[in-house]
């Protein structure tokens, strides 16, 4: 079942709030089992609506019926922990209204609680994992990635996604949001199709202009010089737009934390629109050059 961006945000926000409460109260193994159990339970409840494409209100109702994040964390602590644990439950507040766990007393278990996470997962947690392995501050790795990405952004994104898949398949890293193969396939494909339609549509329009000029005016096309810049640059523009936007579209289909996937999706769409504007301007410039040449010949200037 594929969820919309808004539905994924609802589920991610609820699960992240529960995860924050559990992070210092369970061992790593218990913590992973609790989140997997919670994710499976949410998916089961949404599937129980009987809809192939659930609406936003259906997802909201499921989350509300599951109770507040505090109450859900208390259940998971009892089920996945070493014993009973009491978590203050506020039945008056909605689970979706919680943005951070409330202050709670410390809990005692037979095993020592794990240390607090070394870094906050911003995208997929790759830099957080590398920072732990290399004993480096995560902010230093992110700054280095920004500097390298300023020159090699598409290549760096492919490397980043490759490392993530390796860590995920090897069980070294877990993600709250599910990975959607359908979205991974169709989102970059649709981006490429849109870019292709814009590019080849513009070239076809210029070809029609050539034919119309030869057929109706029965004369050779004049030398348009700089007015025909798009005809000369169309291939390079098409290559660089694909080179930059294909990996970005693929990356926006990944289960990024904090709704970064939604932001990158909008950024990709905005870049496609800018490309369409640039191509339209190129075709308009080509037509303008023909019109000006005809006016100069008509006026004898």
Shape descriptor: elongated
The average pLDDT score comes to 78
Largest sheet: none
Provide the β-strand percentage band. Answer: under 5%
Helix count, per DSSP?
9
Structural class: mainly alpha
> Helix amount, in percent?
55-70%
Report Rg.
27 Å
Number of E-type strands:
0
Number of individual domains: 3
In terms of per-residue confidence, which ranges show pLDDT below 50 for 5 or more consecutive residues? 83-121
Q: What multimeric state do the chains show?
A: single chain
From the N-terminal CA to the C-terminal CA, the straight-line distance is: 67 Å
| SSE succession | HHHHHHHHH
Describe this structure in words.
The protein has nine helices and no strands. It has 301 residues and is mostly helical. The chain folds into three domains: 1-116, no CATH class; 118-175, no CATH class; 181-299, no CATH class. Helix 2 packs across helix 4 (69-80) and helix 8 (229-252) runs antiparallel to helix 9.
Which tags fit this structure?
301 residues, mainly alpha, 9 helices, elongated
Briefly, what is this?
This protein has 301 residues and is an all-alpha fold. The protein is built from 9 helices and no strands. The chain has helices at 5-22, 28-47, 56-65, 69-80, 126-134, 138-169, 181-216, 229-252, 260-299.
């Amino acid at each position: 079942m594929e969820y919309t961006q808004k539905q994924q945000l609802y589920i991610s926000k609820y699960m992240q709030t529960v995860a924050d409460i559990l992070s210092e109260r369970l061992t790593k193994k218990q913590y992973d089992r609790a989140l997997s159990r919670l994710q499976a339970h949410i998916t089961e409840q949404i599937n129980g609506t009987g809809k192939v494409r659930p609406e936003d209100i259906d997802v909201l109702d499921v989350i509300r019926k599951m109770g507040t994040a505090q109450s859900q964390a208390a259940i998971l602590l009892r089920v996945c922990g070493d014993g009973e644990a009491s978590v203050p439950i506020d039945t008056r507040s909605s689970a979706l209204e919680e943005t951070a766990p409330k202050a709670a007393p410390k809990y005692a278990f037979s095993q020592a609680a794990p240390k607090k996470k070394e870094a906050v997962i911003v995208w997929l947690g790759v830099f957080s994992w590398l920072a732990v392995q290399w004993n480096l501050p995560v902010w230093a790795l992110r700054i280095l990635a920004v500097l390298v990405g300023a020159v090699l952004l598409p290549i760096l994104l492919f490397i980043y996604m490759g490392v993530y898949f390796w860590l995920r398949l090897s069980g070294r890293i877990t993600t709250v949001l599910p990975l959607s193969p359908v979205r991974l396939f169709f989102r970059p494909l649709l981006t490429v199709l849109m870019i292709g339609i814009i590019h080849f549509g513009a070239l076809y329009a210029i070809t029609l202009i050539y034919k119309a000029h030869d057929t109706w005016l029965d004369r050779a096309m004049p030398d348009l010089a700089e007015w025909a810049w798009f005809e000369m640059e169309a291939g390079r523009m098409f290559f660089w737009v694909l080179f930059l936007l294909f990996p970005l579209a693929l990356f926006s289909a990944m289960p990024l934390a904090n709704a970064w996937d939604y932001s990158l999706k909008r950024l990709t769409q905005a870049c496609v629109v800018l490309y369409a504007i640039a191509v339209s301007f190129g075709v308009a410039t080509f037509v303008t050059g023909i019109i000006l040449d005809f006016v100069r010949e008509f006026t004898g200037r």
